[in-house]
Amino acid sequence: MTTAGLPADYLNIPPRLNMGQWVVDRHVREGRGGQVAVHVGDRIYTYDEIRRLSNRAGNALRGLGAKPGARLLLRLGTNLDCMLAFLGALKIGAVPIPTSAMLREHEVGIILRNSEAVAAVAMPDLAAAIEAVRGESPSLAHLLLSGEAADPAASLRVLMERASEELVPEATGPNDPAFMMYTSGTTGEPKGVLHGHRWIIGTGDPITKVMTKLGPGDICFQPQDWSFIYPLGCNFLYPFHSGAAVVLPTGRFDPEEAFATIERYGVTVFCAVPTIYRMMLAVSGAERRYRLGSLRMGVSAGEPLPADTFKEWQERFGVTLYDGIGQTESHIFLANRVGMPIKPGSMGKSLPGYEVAIVDDAWKPQPVGEPGHLVIRNDHPGLTLGYYREPERWAQVNREGWYDTKDFAYVDEDGYYWYVSRSDDLIKSRAYLISPKEVESAIMEHPAVLEAGVVGVPDPVIGQKVCAYVTLKAGWDGSRALADELKDHTKRVIAPYKAPQEVEFVSELPKTLTGKVLRRELRAR
To answer: b/e per residue, 153-176, with b = 16+ CB within 10 A?
Structure first.
């Protein structure tokens, strides 16, 4: 690619590419083996140590009969064992599938049957769901346990100790299957999103070389689980792509602990969803109590970043949050980036290499400022290989060379993209189309509001009523008076016809495993 200002090797995908070798062994071969790769508590692991340990993991899995293309279910959380099993699987050409600890038997069973996984690796306290559905999954031949397992034959660590630390990675090609992610199933049963080894360069170059300018010396931290592709990239594979270091999270998210982690390790790049940024803003006096001078940027994705959250982080901590939008089918493809003027509330511009457009229902380009379907040219090397064993489902979101993200957005006169909603979340009231995100953002500008979820509910007169479900910050109580105040506040921020007719205060909003508000559950209420 010859785009001005980009490195000569930008999106240069070699004919042979193994992601596990690329993100670890390559650094050792090029003389960076002594650089820090991972911080786990007080323990530091270099790239050479990760190379040798992941080789042991790969050899252990190969010894069980895992062959190139074989699927491997990971039910491990976010820890060193998961990292090594993931890398080891990549190196031998197997296909790791990180899954959330929050999944129940029904969801685990769907994933096992659809993926036809031949082996699973789980934390001891997460193995029961696999055992419960094992009889329905005939392909599953092995269940390994991480940590200190009682049975040596079923212990990943014991098998690694017995395995060699030398391994020749499988000579995979860029289009060979590398890993698979299962969506949270907001539009039906979970689907397996299959990525090729090309993904590490196809998505990694735009994010690390353009959006974040990531490199050796950076220390990255994201307190979220690797079953979500956003942290899998930003707090594991992209730092390794760039030779940077990562800090592994421990336990459930706590905003005070997140600040302490940034200070303790000298984190330079912090990544999170907007909800986490807002929870951290709710920590009183955090800007005085924690030293955050190492932090050069924050990255936000998963949900649109409200303008007030962006501004408050900049005012209180002197840190700019770079918002973008991505999907399990790729990763971040539209983003604000280092060195580019930011319009708070926008998703920025398309990252180099991606061709993005806004089209109408007839697949014709929409004029500037007009909302439409957000689509990506589907020959991009960062895009998924497809939905595993569901070609019809993949075909439904591809048309005339474009992949339909199922998001609505518009582009302004300066080329900045603005999020509107998921295609099935738009509210039609009094013949007006209303974006729930726009209403949520307006409501969240009120100082009492922590989060808001907005939906349309059927109304015989106006089509749909705008209803807002609101969680409040500490020290505020829900009341009829506050509900009326929020309605009036919203009318002052956006057009009055978009303001909610109803406001209900709730203790929490229903969300997907990745933190997105489940509007369909709110509509069901």
So the answer is: ebbbbbbbeebeeebebbebebeb
- The H or E element spanning position 185 is none
Chain centre to alpha carbon of residue 266: 23
CA R_g for the chain: 23
CATH architecture of 208-422: 3-Layer(aba) Sandwich (3.40)
| Nearest of 459, 423, 449 to residue 503 by alpha carbon | 449
Identify whether the C-beta of residue 221 lies closer than 8 Å to the C-beta of residue 249.
yes
Q: 302-320, pLDDT tens digit by residue?
A: 888 989 999 999 999 999 9
Res 512 pLDDT > 50 = yes
Using CA atoms, how far residue 54 sits from 58, 101, 105, 162, 239, in Å, is: 6, 22, 29, 13, 17
Shared fold status for 19-174 and 208-422: yes
Q: What is the pLDDT of residues 351-360, one digit of tens each?
A: 999 999 999 9
The model's pTM is 0.84
What percent of the chain is modeled with pLDDT above 90?
Answer: 78
β-strands 119-122, 142-145 pairing: parallel
Quick: pLDDT tens for 56-88. 999 999 999 999 999 999 999 899 999 999 999
Check: CB of residue 299 under 8 Å from CB of residue 214.
no
CATH number of 427-524: 3.30.300.30
**Domain layout of the chain by residue ranges:** 19-174, 208-422, 427-524
The superfamily CATH assigns to domain 19-174 is ANL, N-terminal domain (3.40.50.12780)
